Amino acid sequence: MDVRVEIAREAGQELVDAFGRLLPQLSSRAEPLRHEAVERMVTSDANTVLIARSAHGIVGTLTLALLPLPSGLRGRIEDVVVDSAARGQGIAGLLIQEALRIAEKAGARTVDLTSRPDREAANRLYERLGFHARHSTVYRVEGFPADPAEKPLPAPAISP
Questions:
Q1: Which tens digit of pLDDT belongs to each residue from 2-13?
Q2: Cα-Cα-Cα-Cα dihedral sign, residues 9, 13, 14, 17
Q3: pLDDT tens digits, residue range 65-104?
Q4: HSE of 147, CA atoms in CB hemisphere, 13 A
Q5: What's the 3-state SS for the chain?
Q6: Which residues have C-beta within 8 Å of that of residue 69, sequence separation ≥ 6?
Q7: Can you give the pTM of this predicted structure?
């Protein structure tokens, strides 16, 4: 399969539809993204949304976040997903290699990603590409809406 990796520069309907098709393959809890949410991702200065395109359209995506922190510029790869019909053809590797190239060019000190242990093929790929497992604890707060405009957070309680 002939595939090229490119940066998504606009949130057209093709990209919105691709996220609608691909994200449920990554997470059963993924909700469809509205155009505004895709637009926010694509236009954010912190994000680079990469897409893998074949003759059949968008077959994969990855989001690279570059975060300027006190400890230096850090990269984070999120939501790597390749269409199930196109897996096993090196597409995820192409996406990740391009993300690493962009992060290195930007001066990132490190690039992190997370993956569930049951994603065995993905974890083998990450290790082949030079990632290594860190012994760290990841904490998460859940319950935020996908679109903050849908459900504003309550004001925090301030105690005297």
A1: 999 999 999 999
A2: positive
A3: 999 999 999 999 999 999 999 999 999 999 999 999 999 9
A4: 12
A5: CCCEEEECCCCCHHHHHHHHHHHHHHCCCCCCCCHHHHHHHHHCCCEEEEEEEECCEEEEEEEEEEEEECCEEEEEEEEEEECHHHCCCCHHHHHHHHHHHHHHHHCCCEEEECCCCCCHHHHHHHHHCCCCCCCCCCCCCCCCCCCCCCCCCCCCCCCC
A6: none
A7: 0.86
51: its two tokens: 């897409």
What amino acid is encoded at 144 in this protein? F
Supply φ then ψ for residue 112, to 5 degrees: -110, 155
The helix-helix angle for 13-26 and 35-43 (nearest 10°) equals 90
